[in-house]
Amino acid sequence: MLSEENAVFxxxxxxxxxxxxxxxxxxxxxxxxxxxxxxVDSLQLGGNHFRELDLLWVLNxxxxxxxxxxxxxxxxxxxxxxxxxxxxxxxRQYRMEDAEGNCLLQAVSIWTLLNGRTxxxxxxxxxxxxxxxxxxxxxxxxxxxxxxxxxxxxxxxxRPEEIDSNGHINNTNYVRWIDSVLPDGFNxxxxxSQFQINYLAELRQDDKVELHSHVDTQKLAVEGFAxxxxxxxxxxxFIKK
Length: 241
What we know:
By secondary structure, the chain is of the alpha+beta class. Helix content is 17%, strand content 38%. It has one domain: Thiol Ester Dehydrase, Chain A.
């Protein structure tokens, strides 16, 4: 098992300007991706080590609880630690604090190792059972999301700049797309309190994606479809400002 000294990884960041609720959330997803990557690299469990085995870390699910949405220019301390892996799934917890140590956001993710050649989930155990840590603040793992009833369809095409080093659309871009289904001025009256996204099938460059959505002042449901498959599902809850 990891010691507490190297189990919890921290990084200080400053929140940039962002237009839209989910453009801002996409930055927070990006920072959680960064601290995850830097942590496994510091433990020699990512990057070049796994690329030699043709294995890639990919995000499978993420659930976020927002106590207070970080704002532009704010300094944050982002923390992450891994939970016990099971059946090829690697849970990871996150916490974002302001300069005074107040918790603004908590999150839990599930990562998997993808075989870069076959594009299927890797079932091996190269990391071993010691890659785990538990904390009393840990959130329960995000569950599967059944197909939701939706009433609006928006079409988009993936772009080259949305591709990451794993050869598919980066997880942050799925989140950013959701701003496009919100009504004009929505973020002036509503604040996001909870959000979950499940990544179900890879999206590649030039894929045509259908965003099926339903949005009201209390909840959000988005389903993404491409190449005859359900590619992702997202759910959100809002509170009035």
